[in-house]
Structure of Mannosyltransferase (PIG-V):
Amino acid sequence: MTTVTTSPAVVRDTWWQRLAAQRLVWAVLGVYLLARAFSAALLMWIASQQDLSTMPGANGATGHASYWDITHIWDGDWYRTIAEHGYPTQLPRDESGTVQQNPWAFFPAFPVLVRGIMTITGGSFEVVAPTLSLLLGTAAALLMIPLLRPRIGSTATLCTIAVYATLPMSPVLQLAYTESLAMLLLVGFLLAVSREDWAIAGLVALAFGFARPIAPPLGLVALVAVIWRWRARRDRPIPGTEWAGMAFLLVSCGVSAVLWPTIAGLVTGESDAYALTQSAWRASRSVEFFAPWFTNLRYFFGAWTPLWVLTMIAVVVVSIIGPWASALGPVLRAWVAAYAFYLVAVVDAWTSTYRYAIFLFPIIVVWIGAGWKDRDARVLMRTRTVALVVLGLGWQVWWCWTLMHVPSLPWNPI
């Protein structure tokens, strides 16, 4: 396979480039773990202020919560149910026959991994799940190095990961949630597609069928990459094996999109089991496209809602179409555009949108001014990085306190 980058990076690094890469690995590891230590200290402080009896899944326990208590609340409690009891064979319904919230809304890869480690080590879900999430998140941050460094260089890569690691929603990367696993798979997918390792990218896409429901934007990225490769066919003829690899990738993205809904239907005997389960989390009791953004944001912005939605869309579009984003290349640009569109199309705009947005991490490259191919055009990159890190840490305090230090509520805030 031929390595494709968006900058004139050499195929084989010189000795000093390899040394710089090793130093970058340690720098990224240190920055990421420092960020997670800050989040851990913040969570421990919030836990010390939290009455355990008001937390979901407390089961009558009293006293102050611990770090481990707070790292598996809300969706984490659903993953604990799956890890310990699996999935129901029948959808739970109320007296009117309406499907209630149930484990089928949550993909199995993370709780199955947790269950396996629990079986091997004898550890509890409360400890194993957030620890696994921390390790997977660390691996994802390290894997960002080969994804970003050929495009923007070592310093910009470190700055990008520093901002990413301190985003307001970054504590979710050490909770009993699937964001860390999904981020590891996503970075692996983007790296494989960038390097035209079609078969590996296809396998990762299939893994997403058990990990996270984001196959549609992955498919759009794959399609863009295939078209980009096809346009280069005169300079680099496409052999039959590569055509097969590209076809496998596209088919894998399609299969991934329907894999879990199909399994849910087969196990429960209801072909629309997954859709019915998803509707149980919606205020309208049905899955609607685009409309929830306007409906939900109207609670906060009233008549200004359309302007806010258009502004958010404009920020994303402007961020990725100009020369200030040229270093991202077609794959990362396509991902940001496809995933942002996917969020607006299928997600209810609510507090969970914060953590969903973490997968737009390539846009950080633009925010710190590192997206220019001409490195002389990168103005105040370090200053921007420091400002965004400070902003992220402060916002993180608000995010955690608002969404995790709460009485028992009828809806999941994160």
